[in-house]
Amino acid sequence: MEKWDLQAVVGGSSINDAMENPQLSFGPWSFQQDEHHLTSFFPENFETNPNVLDLDELGELYKPFYPVFNPYSTQTILTTFQPVPRDQPAEKPKKQQSFPVNKDSPKPKRFSRKNQPNRVVQHVTADDLPSDVWAWRKYGQKPIKGSPFPRSYYRCSSSKGCLARKQVERSCWNPGVFIITYTCAEHCHGHPTRRSSLAGRTRNKSLTAAAKSVAGYKNGANVVSPMAMGIRDESVEQGRVKMDGRILTTDIMFSDDELVQRYENFDEGVCIFRADSGFVSSTMVWP
DNA sequence: CGTATTTGACCCGCGC
DNA sequence: GCGCGGGTCAAATACG
Q: Residue ranges of the WRKY domain (predicted)?
């Protein structure tokens, strides 16, 4: 049986649309994990489901794929996790950094591209772009091959020694969607206060650099999600919320362990896959 | 003047 | 070994 590594990012659709395609439903689920990461997940009826070919073809195009966690949104918003590859090569001795090293403030370690620690990928719409509790400082921008849009690089400016980084780029498939990749996702400090998180992120009342790059960006620059504001409903905290008597997943960012735990617990219900306009989506539905 | 952003240069991992 | 491409640095610039 083929097992798909979770490395690529795909888009999503609404759960109601997906529910109309029950032939693409699978479950219950099995998954594999190494010591620290979820490495693959697959439906146990993968081999017996007569529609597996559909999924297989999608897998060829988009494999591997991610689950989608916001079935409510009219616009696709998905939260995903990008684990490290299953087969990690033994760590090579690193070359000496060529730039001068200050003993008091060592330069952040540069990680292998294939071995980025704690990498989290999040897709958001322009509306949600400023919804970030952390204060970020832009330190670079690069054109990306194959994409008409540049990628911007940000580091956490809340704390001097914090290694948290994020990259923001527009999806070349859907320019209305922004792909935010967090690396070193754990901050070495607590959430900044609302005041401090705003301090330094805005030069003025005008838009941040990231916001400026958004065509058609709304003037409501202070749109902040409840999560970003630190308001955590208990059901949201657990990653599930009830709607129409079903328990659905929500658009929350998960750590490695949390995501693994989600699939461990997902032994009932179905996971619905759907292909739509070049995207593959999945929605987990608890009974 | 202090802080954030811009942008060209540089570094380095990785594939060939 | 070499070149490509992605990530980071840091000087210059912008802005309040």
A: 125-192
Does nucleic acid strand C have an atom less than 7 angstroms from the CB of A107? yes
Query: Comparing A11-15, A38-42, A123-127, which segment has the lowest mean pLDDT?
Result: A11-15
Query: Beta carbon of A200 within 7 Å of strand B?
Result: yes
More confident residue, A263 or A234: A263
> Can you give the distance from the CA of residue A206 to the C1' of nucleotide C15 in angstroms?
11
Residue closest to A159 by CA, chosen among A100, A199, A211, A209: A199
Chain A residues 107-166, Cβ below 7 A from strand B: 110, 112-115, 136-142, 152, 157
CA atoms within 13 A on the CB side of A275: 14
What mean pLDDT value characterizes chain A?
47
CB A160 within 8 A of CB A147: no
| Share of chain A residues as helix, strand and coil, in percent rounded to the nearest 5 | 15, 25, 55
Q: How far is the CA of A235 from the C1' of B12 (A)?
A: 45
Cα A52 → chain centroid: 26
Confirm whether any atom of chain C, the nucleic acid strand, is less than 7 Å from CB of A200: no
A142 burial type by CB count under 10 A (0-12 exposed, 13-18 middle, 19+ buried): exposed
- Predicted confidence at residue A146, as pLDDT, reads 82
DSSP reduced 3-state for A192? coil
Cβ atoms A30, A38 nearer than 8 A = no
Alpha helices for A134-173 (secondary structure H): none
**A136-145, A146-155, A169-178, A218-227: the lowest-pLDDT one:** A218-227
Using DSSP's 3-state secondary structure scheme, residue A102 falls into coil
The whole-number pLDDT of residue A186 equals 64
